Amino acid sequence: MSADEHHDHHNPPFWQKYIFSTDHKMIGLQYGITALLFLLFGFFLMMMMRWSIAYPNEPVPTWMSWVFSDNWQGRWLTDGKVTGETYNMFGAMHGTIMVFLGVVPLGFGAFGNYVTPLQIGAPDMAFPKLNCASYWLYLIGGIMMCGSFFLESGTAKSGWTNYPPLSSLADAQHPNQFFTGQTQWLLGLVMLISSSLLGSVNFITTIINLRAKGMTWMRLPFFVWAMLVTGFLLLLAFPPLEVAGIMQVVDRTFGSSFFQPTGLVSGEGIEGFAGGGSPLLFQHLFWFLGHPEVYVLLLPSIACVAEIIPANTRKPLWGYKSMVYAVLVLGFLSFIVWAHHMYLTGMGSSVSTFFQTTTVLISVPSVVLITAMLISLWGGSIRFTMPMMWACAFLPMFGIGGLTGLPLAFNLVDLHLHDTYYVIGHFHYVVAPGILFGLFAGIYYWYPKMFGRYMNRMLGHLHFWPSLIFINLVFFPMLIQGMAGFHRRWYNGGDAYMAPEGSEDVFGNTVREYIGLNELMSVSVFLLALAQVPFIINLFTAWKMGKKVESDNPWNATTLEWATPTPPGHGNFTFDVAVYRGPYEYSRPDCEEDYYPQWHEPKADTSANLDAGIAEKKEH
């Protein structure tokens, strides 16, 4: 069957095309829309938390509380105010939703699924049905977690890290432990991890086996390299946490003691567990995933930016091979830094020194990546399109996130900053203005390929500039409060610790000095939420009302996804794909145009065909 015939004759029924689809592009869109909805909900939970922090003595206003039923508010809000227990629920679910249900599915699930097969010249993923199963496991896991808000026990309350013994004893008063928020959180986590494992196997197999003719390893776009490394990170790091989740479910429902120490004392006295378990074991299993997970979040975002910069500077990506080697080293080092999250657990000085060293070392490949992208801007003919603006904003935001993390590599500094708002500010600078800016850039960049229309530029500016301003006003003050000693889990923002004027209480006076930043950050959060309205309008209206693209390659880019019809149909390509050169051939002096796509066959250069690895024997 020719490529044209394969492309045209495919018309599945509605349920198979849009619901239980096995097409990587539709699954990518399913991941993307679902992840954006979860991100919206996670952002709302953050708004509830910020209200409680800035205005602890005031009831939640109606414009936020209407989301919850009167019955739910009666149970979990005291006189309309957020309580400590409710704040813990919001905090646990905010972290869980943003990391496991939002950013990873958007970066790896949505962009990875949609773009990776196109960029390697494949008709689909290697295992389409596995791909479908991966999405549905993700959706079921997310519904289980978020649905636990409506259980009698409420949802999980032990932080997104779920440390035992606190998490093992949570909701212990309920007779049916299976139907408690904490247990449903764990079961949902198992579903999400299973989804990620299916996806990672699929990505690795697809990239290794389904590359087009001539697509050698060093002709892969950097985006594909990032997805390959991300796939291996998920495959190797997630199984320990899945096992830990199952073990904790067994602890909660069957009374085992994998993570329960002997002689544990709670408010009810000595607990009746058999004991002998280790709470620290769970921390090791969690953070063995937790730090590779940071790069699972980060690499898809860097990958989007690395594709956007060459297309908008009209010059090759500087240091492409260095970036490839850096991302491979980054993936390896991410497995041997996890215990820097655990300095306060009493590990010996030798072990601390090892993890301090590896944590500093992992900054080197990160610096290589960001430096290469910064140098790629130098001397370029920069086009400030909407994707490029988000990509340019990503670079300093990610830089701030990385630099603020360096002090935390040292256990002496971490003794002071651990569990303060400094840690929150550092992590969120990486994840929010860093990673999310890169993913926004990807949405604006590939939207014309997905739907055949541009997103509105004016709405894009209304989204970009307020987001850039207010997101810094949210997270930069956290660094200041953190160095002043503000704890990350104060549901009242430190109001209970504030000393009266004239007091000699040093810490209380410090709290009084910096507590005013709470209101600045909270107001900035509400304005940041308002800044997302133009994006939501743009996302859904551009699909029908946006300006139509002029060609299948509207950005004049060089990678293979721009060789497909717009939007790509079944099978993706309408010709037999062959690759003749690297992914970023821009502004070559021997070309009439300022770009030389990978799929353009050299006109009369037999040696170029030989170099492509697909040359035919010369005819004599």
| Major pleated sheet | 2 strands, antiparallel
Q: Could you give the distance between the termini? A: 31 Å
Question: What radius of gyration results from the CA coordinates?
Answer: 25 Å
Q: Kindly state the mean pLDDT as a whole number?
A: 92
Q: How much helical structure, as a percent, in the residues?
A: 55-70%
Number of helices: 22
Strand order of the largest sheet: 1-2
Spans of at least 5 consecutive residues whose pLDDT stays below 50 are 1-6, 606-620
How much of the sequence lies in strands comes to under 5%
Question: How would you classify the helix and strand content by structural class?
Answer: mainly alpha
Tally of DSSP β-strands: 4
H-E string: HHHHHEEHHHHHEEHHHHHHHHHHHH
**Envelope shape:** globular
Walk me through the structure.
By secondary structure, the protein is mainly alpha-helical. The protein has 22 helices and four strands. The chain has helices at 3-8, 14-19, 24-54, 62-65, 70-76, 84-120, 128-147, 166-169, 181-209, 222-254, 279-313, 320-333, 349-361, 363-377, 386-405, 411-417, 421-451, 457-483, 506-514, 517-531, 533-545, 606-611; strands at 77-78, 81-82, 265-266, 269-270. The strands form two sheets. Strands 1-2 form a two-stranded antiparallel sheet. A hairpin with a 2-residue loop joins strand 1 and strand 2. Helix 10 (222-254) runs antiparallel to helix 11 (279-313), helix 10 (222-254) runs parallel beside helix 12 and helix 17 packs antiparallel against helix 18. It is globular and about 85 Å long.
